[in-house]
Amino acid sequence: MAAALARGNIMRIRFDIPQYSDALRKLFESACDSIHGSDQLLQMMPLQRITHSGPIRNVPGPEPLDHPLALMEQVAEIPKETIRDTTVDSFTEILHSFTEGVTRQRAAHMFRMFDSITEKTGNHIAAEGNAVTYDRLTVMLELAEHSFDDDGKPQGVIILPPEAYAQLFARPPTNAEYRRLEEVMERKKAEYFAQKRTRRLSR
């Protein structure tokens, strides 16, 4: 990053201004955090500021699972002409490309964590090479823990890659498939509210 400093009649070129670099760093960081907070997928992994170098314990208990902090690197090259001419469109494209790169890395890291956590807790179903069906979806929902709002509506998100989404919705569920899915969710709802009442009575 180059910047020109004028002093008297002499133009002196410096290739780093700490205050300017710090301001840019904060701008890029703020842009990435804003995208993170508005992304429906990344909202599931809220940002947290920490002061240690890890690891993070994601599964407690006698057989815990720790994850090291992930190192993510994204480079933004800002031509000196963009800074010198204050080219807003060019800078916006650079900022957008940078945030997209960071977002992709964060999403990939989140899925790697989900994969290892579900495998550790026994909620992992390997479906490589198999089509996603309503019966398979029902099995996954039966393994998972669920919460419900006061109206009995399930609180959660099902995330599918585009190919799996297309497979699942290529045809509507049969009556038997839909009935099994409803039975599982009704049982999960009853278990959730039974546990909630037990916790309330034990206080």
What key phrases describe this protein's structure?
single chain, 203 residues, mainly alpha, 2 domains, two-stranded antiparallel sheet, two-stranded antiparallel ribbon, 6 helices, 51% helix, disordered N terminus
How many discrete structural domains?
A: 2
Parts with pLDDT < 50 across at least 5 consecutive residues: 1-14
Strand order of the largest sheet: 1-2
Name the shape in a single word.
elongated
Overview of this structure, please?
The protein has 203 residues and is mostly helical. It folds into 2 domains: 3-120, no CATH class; 134-201, no CATH class. It contains 6 helices and 6 strands, in the order E-E-H-E-E-H-H-H-E-E-H-H. The radius of gyration is 25 Å and the shape is elongated. Helix 1 crosses helix 3 (88-120) and helix 4 runs parallel beside helix 6 (175-201). 51% of the residues lie in helices and 10% in strands. A two-stranded antiparallel sheet has the order 1-2. A two-stranded antiparallel ribbon has the order 3-4. The chain starts with a strand and ends with a helix.
